[in-house]
Structure formats: C-alpha cells, structure tokens
Predict the structure.
Amino acid sequence: MQRKEERRELFRVVFKETVWGTMTLLGEGGVTVKILDISSQGALVETDFDISSKSKVFLDFKINSNPFSVPGSVIRKVVYPDYFQYGILFSEDKQQFQKLFRELNTYKIRKAKPYLLED
C-alpha cells in the first residue's frame, strides 16, 4: 500500500512554463503570484509580497483556459532573500476538487501527448 505522501504526489502538476495567478487575502487586495506547482488539494506559489502564515486567501488562476478561484489557507512560508514561497492548502469543496482534478489531468495529458487532444 502506498503512503499518503506518495499518493498525493501522483496528482501534483509542476509547471515548466510560468503560470501566473492572483492571491487575495481576505479583506485586502490581491497580489500577483507565480504558481510553481498545484494539485487538487493545494499549491506552491512564489511572490515578493510578505504575508503571515495561516492567512486565509483566495487563489485565482487558469488551467486549460478555465478560471478557478479557490479559497485556502497558507500552511507553509519559506523566506528567500528576494521573495517568499507559500504552501497553500485549499479548503475542502468536493465540486471544486473534482473540477480542478479533471482540469489538472487534462493538462498533464496535453503536455505529455498534445496530439491526443488537439482543439
């Protein structure tokens, strides 16, 4: 039986190209973030904006031209000299989870075998 961490990694998408999004703190404005990787349960983002750990946020982004606005919480913060990385755990929403899961799988297939899903 696979460990929980290994199962979770099967559905994580690491972006080779730059994917931008907006992270909005509840009650405050949004800031542009670079999305480094994402799963249906959370994301790793990078920005030069300093926020506190455990902040409640919305992450807005597009996958396969489909927009998402996902609520979540900052669960990890790593400080670098010129920027910050944040681990965001998405709030549980079964419909949102399923939609994002489908889009991430489609994204992975398109990147691996683009000829299968030509528009």
